Amino acid sequence: MEKTKIEIRDLDLFFGKKQALKNISLHIPEGKITALIGPSGCGKSTLLRCLNRMHDLNPQVKMSGIIQLDELNLLHGNTNPVHLRRRVGMVFQKANPFPKSIAENVAYGLKINNLCHKTQMATRVEKSLRDSFLWEEVKDELAESALTLSGGQQQRLCIARAIAVEPEIILLDEPCSALDPISTGKIEELMLKLRGRFTQVIVTHNMQQAQRVADYTAFMYLGELVEFGETKQIFENPQQDLTRNYVEGHFG
Fold first, then answer.
1. Per residue in 59-91, pLDDT tens?
2. Domain 4-98+167-247, CATH 3.40.50.300 — does that match?
């Protein structure tokens, strides 16, 4: 049995009076890639954003239940969301580099969290860019604006920025939906390279992508978790008719 990194128990979430997540219970294994799949509006991104308290910014959101990261209950009032987000990095659907140089983007989290002495900064920046398969493409342009990079390069830069602070978990919210197939392939290759070193949770509409990269897959529908298991089992031998109909393309 895999070691659990995040345990979700009896999670309910409301946007005002509308319930978006209904009694979600899920164990996310450490060091593995877990995919959240399901049709639009089923609650995938809503669940993902619970894992680093992104909903804190919305006063309409009410949550109950338990989300346990190792010893920490994320939903407890004493949990510091800033400290939490150092442990749980996030990569969004649309690349969002800062309007700074390539090097400054990667160094940003290291600086604001005082995680690295100035003398080590260049080494840490290079390591993160190498880990993100970006170093060879940008090593002569580190002082250039990150906004000059292509969409795929910007997304890999955002991953470099996320992993520079050595989080334990990386959340990826449809990181390839705006990218061409070649850029998508590079992001998937990168995810596979980072497996083991980080726990990764990816929201994807692309079922082929889930099959290519994910160790485990959770199928969601109308705010509920319908089925969770090893990816091969979910796609080849689903236990629920609803899961089977979805992975076979009968709806979605």
1. 999 999 999 998 899 998 888 888 898 899 999
2. yes
